[in-house]
Each structure stands twice: as C-alpha cells, then as structure tokens.
Amino acid sequence: MITYIDSKNCQKVCRLMRVSELLGALSYEPFAKCMHFPEREIHGICIDSRECREGTVFVCIRGSLCNGSRYAREALRRGARLLVAAKEERETIGEILGEFPECEGILVDDEREAAALLAARYEGEPSKTMTMIGVTGTKGKTTTVCMIRKILEDFGIRTGMIGTVGQFDGVRKEQAEHTTPDAVTLQRLLGRMRQNGCRVCVMEVSSQALKLKRTCGICFDLGVFLNLGEDHIGKLEHASREEYLACKRKLFLQSREGLGNGDDPATERIFSGTGCPYGTFGIRQGEIRAEHIQAEGFVQGHPGVEFDVCKVHVAIPAPGRFTVYNALAAMAVCARCHVPWETASASLADFQVRGRMQFLHIPGGAEAVIDYAHNAMSLQSALETLKGYHPTRLITVFGCGGQRARERRFQMGEVSGRLSDLTILTSDNPRWEDPEAIINDIETGVRKTGGAYLRIVDRREAVFRAVQMAGPGDLVVIAGKGHETTQEIQGRLYHMDEQELVEEACTQKLL
Q1: 418 among the known binding-site residues?
Q2: Is 261 marked within a binding site?
Q3: CA triple 193-13-250, angle to 5 deg
Q4: Per the CATH hierarchy, to which homologous superfamily does domain 358-510 belong?
Q5: Beta strand pairing status for 17-18 and 41-42?
Q6: 27 annotated binding-site participant
Q7: Where are the alpha helices (DSSP H) in 9-140?
Q8: Quick check: 159 and 198 in contact, CB under 8 A?
Q9: Which top CATH class is 124-348?
C-alpha cells in the first residue's frame, strides 16, 4: 500500500543555493584542481542558453542535431557562471572557459543525468514529498493518467498531472510541449505541485523521456505498464524494438512497485530483472480482471463500455476494449491509494477526455469522432471499436507526422484501407518533410488493401470534405491530432483545432 507524505508540512524550496551544496548531487571532475567559487550562489539550472541569467548553471546537452556546447558562450554572456558538460567535450569547454575567467566548469560522465539530478537538487527534491505514479505504454497513457487524476481528485486527494493533454500543478493547467517535459522543466513543475499542496503526481512517462533520462532522480512509488506495440522505431526515436522495450523497462528500475497488463506478452520481459514487485490487471489474465464486458453499448447516450471488476459494476461513456484496460489500470492504481472500488466506478461514470474518442454530431444523422490515434495499433483499436457500432459508412481522415518512423505510414495506411469504407489521406504535422511524400507512403499501405481513398493535402479541406459527404448513420473518424490545437509545417505552428474545424464544417453543411 502507498503511504502519503503530507506536502503541507514541507518547507518551501529556497531558490538560492551555493555551488558546493548543489554539486553534492553529482560525481564530477572540475576543470581546475579546485573550485574557485564554491560559495557562489546559484539562481537556477538551464539547458537552454536563452533562459540563462546572472548566477545560473548551464548544462551542455548533446543532441541528435547539435550540441549544447555550441551555445555555451551565449549562456556565459547572459550570466551563467558554471558550465556542466560531458567529459568528451573537455577540449571545447576548456577553450570557452579560457575566455571567461570569472566562470567555472565541471565534466561529468552523462550530462543528461547530471541535468536531472542538479534540477532535482535545486528544486529541493520535490518528488520525495509526493506520491509519484508513472504510466508508460504505446497507447492509453493519456487516458489512464486522466482517469487516475479524476478518481483521486473526486476522492479529495489533490493530484498534479503531467501528460500529452497538458500539465496541472494543482492550481492551473498549461499546454504540454512534450508528453514528458525535459528534466529541468519537470522538476520546476514538481516544485510547483508541492507548493500548491499536491499529495500525488501522476504522469505519463514516454520511452523517449526514459531514453533521454528526463526522469532521472525520481523514485516512483508506483509504475504502470499498459502495453507495447510496433511504434516509435526510427532515426529520431528508437533504433529497434529491443531498444524501445529496454527504454520502457527503465521506469521499473526506478519504481518501488509496479502494475502490468497481464494480457500483454511484453509484461514479463518489462519487469524481469528490475527487482520491482508487480501485480497484474487484464481481461484474460491478471490478478484484477474485468468480467461481463459490454464493449459496444451506450452509456448515458454515448458509445461506451460496461464491465464488472472486484464485484463492482463500471459504466464509462467511452467505447472500446482498450477503455476497459485503461480503466482497470486506473482503478487498480487508485485502489492502492486507498480509494474504494465503488468510488472509482462512480468517478468514471462521466469520464471524457478532449480529443480521445470525442463524438460530435453532424447535421443529417452522422457523427464525427476526433481521436489522437497516431500509430497503427491505436488506429486499428479505434476503427475496430467503431465498426462494432455498425455505421452506414466509416470514413477515416488522417495523415502521419513528419520526421517520425516511416514504417508507421505504411502500417496506418493498411489498417485504414482494410477497416474504412473510405480513407481520406491528408497532412498531420509534416514538420520539415514534404506532405505529398508522406501521403505517398501512406497511400502505398492503402493500395495493398484495395480500399477506396482520396488524397487531400490540406487538412482543413479534408475535414470539410468528409463532413460534407457524411450521410445518415455515417461515422467520420478524424485521427492523429486529437487535443492538439496547432499544425507544424516547415518549423512554423499554425492554429488548427479539430473540434472548431468540425463545428465550422457543420455550420457550412447547414447553409
């Protein structure tokens, strides 16, 4: 069972810290034989040179495109007084420090780990004052995290949240740039949660965050594994499925306890050798199992699921067997936080997440469904679930993100071509890639199935076309972006809210 730490009795973090105190978090090698300014006060940790000010520490992070050492001079000119860099950067950093005699530098084995540990030390180790819950998996992280937060909040436990749909510090919600923020931002956010009286923090922990050591220095009270699919394999993500699994596994090397999906064949490998004791949930296998499942019914007038678990009936206005898995995980987590199963069930009775199986009415008897499904696994789950409602036609609008695993495009095209009556290929976030080239790849997958399709590069035009052609009983699935409100093209962000698009298209349809 999880024991809470009462954050109200914790003192606020002092934002000033001496160099000698800060560096106690690290094993390091100073450039000089000794530090010249061990009592110098530190005013913050930065990994972005533009954020540096007088008295800050700048950690030179090596990236896939460029190294932080390239911006070290700018950081020092802005007021940074201590550089932290990898030992491999000794010569470069030594040359830079020679130009700034009033500044110092240290070398470390792993600068990403150092950034995380320094940020945690500077913020006063905020994760130690809260119950930390981390959720990982290829799909379902966002929904599960939102379910956990809702149940705990409804039970009276102030809960911070970090994830794809936003970050909540106990007082206000902000948009998220990444599923799991960088280490410095993460520790600042945890510090705000503590100051705002959060007793629990529940967060999505992406494989990329684990690979880049953003959560280093956090000991999770409970780690949750949902599933492992074929995704995120590519040049800028993971080199192979084995690396992907190994990164997911890292969460449980820093978790006191675990929960895993008993129906997923990867669960045993994920936990094996981690030393993390774990329980399981599932539909076919698991210590906590769902029974009497009705996955294609209606709850409060919305497509939804019903099932029984631990002698409690659960009804959720969100469709699909994947909703059952997400709910099982969330309820099992909350049970370990002393929330009765009946209370958790009542909390989920009105649960919905923007951009996750979000239904909108289209004039004339059709429905639009906005969903974040952005890989083959999640798209297949969504379309199979919706086909279970026997629509007149299933029309799917989607694209694929640029600079992401290319294989995803072929797979998603094949899934939609097989399950949809009509696929409309369009743009997602092409980033720096040519949208037409991305669509060509998706088209290759669709053509394998012989499924009907259209190509409309402009996403707004594609959504409008789908809504205009929708007739009685049709379902229009708009997949890939979900809650997002921007589209990234050639390094620029353009406003694009799919709920607004559907509403505009519906208004035009009535004219």
Answers
A1: no
A2: no
A3: 55
A4: Mur ligase, C-terminal domain (3.90.190.20)
A5: antiparallel
A6: no
A7: 19-22, 72-77, 90-97, 111-122
A8: yes
A9: alpha beta
